[in-house]
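Exercise 7b. Backbone tokens:
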């Protein structure tokens, strides 16, 4: 396995995970993550294209190897950190990552999903243009009103890995 960029590795550290595991509310976790050095660093690296979509996909694949059905996923705060880092990144992958994670209904990753939902709600309602698969023309949608079926226009690594678990 190739190593992940240091900005992603920082989200897996015990210090990062333990800091947010002590916060009692989803709103509190989201707010603290927005201010954290690790999330701000990843956000900047994504904005400057030092961390790519492929880097994030590889990182998520790697940490999902620890997924055990029926148990709280030990890296869900790391995945939540990615979603918070994606807020304000003007790329389809970033928007779709947040929306997809927010739409997940997995008990094992419930906290990550709730933090992503908070991130999704923090994004101002804006019009965006997307090209839906099989649709040749643009469709205009409001970001905060994307139906669940449209939130996962692309298949994310999370589904692929959890199916094999």
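Sequence design result:
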């Amino acid at each position: 396995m190739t190593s992940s960029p240091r900005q992603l590795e920082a989200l897996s550290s015990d210090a990062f995970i333990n800091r947010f595991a002590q916060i009692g509310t989803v709103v509190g976790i989201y707010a603290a993550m927005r201010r954290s050095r690790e999330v701000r660093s990843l956000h900047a690296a994504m904005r400057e294209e030092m961390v790519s979509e492929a880097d994030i996909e590889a990182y998520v694949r790697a940490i999902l190897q620890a997924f055990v059905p029926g148990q709280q996923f030990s890296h869900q705060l790391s995945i939540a950190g990615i979603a918070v880092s994606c807020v304000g990144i003007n790329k389809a992958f970033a928007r779709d990552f947040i929306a997809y994670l927010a739409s997940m209904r997995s008990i094992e990753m419930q906290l990550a999903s709730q933090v992503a939902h908070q991130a999704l709600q923090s994004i101002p309602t804006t019009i965006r243009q997307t090209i839906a698969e099989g649709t040749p023309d643009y469709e205009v949608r409001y970001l905060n009103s994307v139906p669940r079926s449209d939130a996962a226009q692309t298949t994310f690594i999370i589904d692929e890995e959890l199916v094999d678990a």
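Instructor comment: Strands lie at 127-130, 139-142. The longest strand covers residues 127-130.
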